[in-house]
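The freezer alarm interrupted the setup, so I double-checked each line after restarting. Inputs confirmed:
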Amino acid sequence: MLPVEIAQRVLDHALAQGADFADLFVERQQRQSLSTLLDQVDTVQSGLEFGIGVRLVYGDKVLYGYTNQASADVLCKIVSTLAAKDRRDPISTRKAFDYRVAHDLHPARMPLSKDSALQAKIEYLLRADQAARQGQSKITRTMGSVAQREQQVEIFNSEGLHTTDTRHYCRIALSAVAADGSEQATGAENIGALVGWELHQSDDPLRLGEEARRQALINLGAKPCPSGQMPVVIGNGFGGVIFHEACGHLLETTSVAIKASVFHDQMGEMIAHPCVNAVDDGTINNAWGSINIDDEGLQTQRTQLIKDGRLNSFLVDRMGSQQTGFARTGSGRRESYRYAPASRMRNTFIEAGSDSLEDMIASIDRGIFAARMGGGSVQPGTGEFNFAVTEGYYVENGKVQYPVKAATLISTGPKVLKEISMVGTDFALACGMCGSVSGSVPTSVGQPALKVDQILVGGNA
Amino acid sequence: MNLPHFANQVLERVRQAGAEADLIVDEQESLSLKARDGALEEQAISTTRILGLRVIQDERVGIAYSEASDDAALEHLAEQALLNARFNQREAHERIPQNAQTLSTDDQLLCPSSDLDNEARIELALYLERTLANKPQIRNVPYNGVTEQLKHRQVFSTQGLQASSRQRSNALYAYALAAEGELTAMAGKGHAARTGGQLDADKVIHQAHAEAVALLQGKPIPSKRYHVIFEREAQESLFSAFRLCLSGRSAQDGINPWRERVGERVASPILHLADQPLNTDGFGYHLFDAEGTACAETPVIVEGVLQTLLHNSATARHFGTQSTGHAQRGPKSSLSVGAHQLSIAPGQTTQSDLTSGEYLELTALQGTHSGANAISGDFSFGATGYLCRNGERLQPVRGITVAGNYYQMLKQIAAVGDQAHWNWQRSSLMPLLRFADVAISG
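Predicted 3D structure, all chains:
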């Protein structure tokens, strides 16, 4: 995408300013999205994004700039502006580019650049809408969407790296609104993967619609949630957001290097119950959070974060490696050329254990079964997190009693890791978007169902 | 690049295809600085331009955008928008407004010259981090920054609209991590101003330090229903999470719980809510909306009664009313509706009356993006703050949740303070409100 001569000139200019290291991230991304409201198309839009990010490193200091213009003069001007206060005699010279492309672990059969498949996407969403509303007058609205994008990246650095990659993302979602008098409730279901439009072949639109409907109707009849400290069983799949928020962010060197993580000095120590094994894996074929190379050009890998409760690895990008001494893990990611890379999660999950969901629920005298989780957030410095329950049930005497609404779980990462006492067998991954210092990136969360012995449930009962 | 000439070329292509269109061009220059351990850790600069085209052909709308400005990309932009329109449903209400006019904001007011050079700005970033990090009980300042943004929006249409708006904004923020033995607490504060010279670093340092240190001793309180005052940032977060209820677009989509409530009481009679886009003290100032419609003050709730929803020209046509000048559209998005600068009128309650007796002052809410259902009104957030009595903070509180139903809570406003305050990002102007009977879990 960027002529090699331009990359050479810009990186040479950066090193001439005395930078220790410099790299260029070139991105061209095609996007298309469409949405439906009930059985009507609501919006159809598409776009082309293009830009170049240039990073200069002086010691532990990062200077970053970006532009939409693929011009050597513009890029050199950015470099000069960035380096104005740090300019010094050159201390290194650029190595010749060695162009290499990683093996494509995540091929797409129906990429956006080949066919926008608009009619097929519309038909898929209308079938999902039909499934959600068929024979059920309480479903008053459905909102469907398909978002597909194709991101081409090219990375050059002053150490001779020159590589390219193409990433294909596709996501389909349907949400339903149920109403009864003045009461309204919602349900939603989505699928996503690092693939092209062939994603639609992996799941039936009828299932998507029926699942959104099921959740909306359950939430419509839900009672206010009891509150207080109590045991909670967190369902599989997107329930993994608990680990993502409570612990995953605290294992990124973005937080560790600046001692803004409660785990920054606990490598090798027991930080979780011995039944907990956790992984961040960028290599799972076509999974939503997978990559071939990270956004610094390093091949991705599978990283064992916690082994039998003991902290085994952080998620490490280039700057994190320089600042902490830990080896890079292929975790340098960014939303786009508008962000400098940072250590980020990919597909992050707790591995399967040996307990059954039934046994977990049966072990609770008074508590909650959080079958489906929504989003959440964490404060890395203290480990305090919160996340929302989107489908929950009150449990008493070992049995599910009734659905509850408007529940939030809050605790701290270190505490909740030690409160996990049972880990199930029904492992599943689910996709989401994770926002942090380098923007919003696709990540998978995952886990089998697991039991937390005590956590604060916020409700309105 | 001669932008008006270029815009004409794009619009002419659309005209030749028998369609009408408007083109948004957003240009932005930005600078941000972050410090760590007394040295500059990160400096970022950017210059970007995004073009967003909306075409309407045979009552069908198509959207396309591009960050590339070469001839091929522009050809592709028009082609894509027209292609997308062919797959859309007919939408008779959405049209390009007949508003051939030239509009321009006042640069002297909204876009004054930068009064800090790069050296001074770097020194400000270093001072902010260094001074706060050196305060007692502060372990470090992991998140901090000094930023400047210059945003320029231009809107052109096949109907002859040429509108231009430029705004400069500066901001600084810092999150302090306090520690004492095993205890840690973090608190962040910020300040925004038109120019860098107006930024008050010392105020942010003082507030972030005081809050982080106070919260070290924070602990849960017994679960029960309390009177609650949301501090200005928390209150703004709460109102933002439920803005859908003001939108004519969400009403048209059938998901706004207030879609059939215009003229009815939706809140306590002491609540007066308006949108004030022409208040130049705020950063939500708008002379015109995304369709080029002139903005004006819009009373939304008067004495608790819903006066109107917010409309663009399409939702107004759908409901048989007039646009309120609240069209919202980015270059990458379709036409929607949004408030510019929400404002609550000060009430009659003095600060001492507002803070009489026992109440909970919540200074921060966690999870407002995930714990709120704007359709049902149900919410449950993590929260931190203080248990107070008669205006005095008795005990810092953390590790609690606040839960309820927003639409019910608006009817339970017990008092409206007599002083209005901007939130730090200067996007809303509100007095403090006191809510009765709010569920707290600890």
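Quick read of the result. Chain B touches chain A through 76 residues (CB under 8 Å).
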